[in-house]
Design brief:
The structure is a single chain. The protein is an alpha/beta fold. The protein has one domain: Spore Coat Polysaccharide Biosynthesis Protein SpsA, Chain A. It is built from eleven helices and nine strands. The strands form three sheets. It has a four-stranded mixed beta sheet with strand order 2-1-3-6. Helix 10 links the parallel strand 8 and strand 9. Helix 2 runs parallel beside helix 4 and helix 4 packs across helix 7. It is a single-pass type II membrane protein. It is found in: Membrane. One of its GO terms (cellular component) is membrane. InterPro entries: BC10-like, Glyco_trans_14.
Amino acid sequence: MKVLCRNLEQDRERAMISSWPFVICLVLLVSMPVVFVLAHRILMPTTLPGIPDMDEADDVALFRRATLASAGGGGSAGLRRRPPSAPKIAFLFLTNSDLTFAPLWERFFRGHERLFNVYVHADPAARLLLSPTPSFLGRFIPAKATKRASPTLISAARRLLAAALVDDPANAFFALLSQHCVPLHSFRFTYRALLADPGAPPTPTGFRRHRRSYIEILSGEPGLRDRYVARGDDVMIHEVPFEQFRVGSQFFVLARRHAVLVVRDRRLWKKFKMPCLKSMADSCYPEEHYFPTLLEMQDPQGCTRYTLTRVNWTDSVGGHPHTYRPPEISASLINRLRRSNSTYSYLFARKFSPDCLDPLLKLADSVIFQD
């Protein structure tokens, strides 16, 4: 009897052991969908793309050169060397497509070659089919990839500022523009408006004025709190208190000392270079936050707090402003775009579709450059 019971128990154990592979397979089969769902949630990044480490390392080296060049009061081994000259405007074009309006800018620049420099940051992925016009030829700086809703647009603007600082010590103003921007006045008018700033405060010596920067700095805007926490609830603390967080237009004209301040900054950049949460993508516009916040915290009295680039947000789509089309181009439109509530009229405007070039060229000599 004992032998019989032992045999039965052994048979049961063998049966259980032989069934284990089947049980394991069944468990795995049932659990695979659950594992797939959980892995997707756990392993997929919760943030938008950030700044690649290699890009950051390259930028730090460039920014150090720009800071040293400015501290020394002269140029360094950069794009070009020049002796001191009259103050110049550095036109910084940030683009991810062809510079369609280059022919219009050529007319704007004509005859003033000693008073300006051009620098272009073109996204390496952009297919530029048009040949550069004379003022843009050879003026493309080493560029990195850019993407909306990421700090890469801040990096690109800082790269342009640094390249212009290294290149020419005569660059006094730095105008950030896009491929969709056009001038609203002649170069002569633009130059005089920037250089003869009646609101610029005197220096301690009283003999010459500090040049101000033309950058929009806004507080109390709708959705400002969501923009502030786009990287996480407490990410910006303590370097950037919410009370000092600002928003403004992506496009500005900076005085030289503020351009140096931007490329020298490490403290605020440490926060603003952090990627936004995917869940906050609709509130992630770092390029509209970093520059106004930095200048508000460092030198609020040295800024006009308004931009010189006109834009129409009345019928924006997907975060993009109104795009002007050929039927809208007229002398009355140019005059309307110039009007401003600030000290000066607007000097530039966006956003224009590429096919606006011909109608704008027809108005260039008779309207746009007739101040």
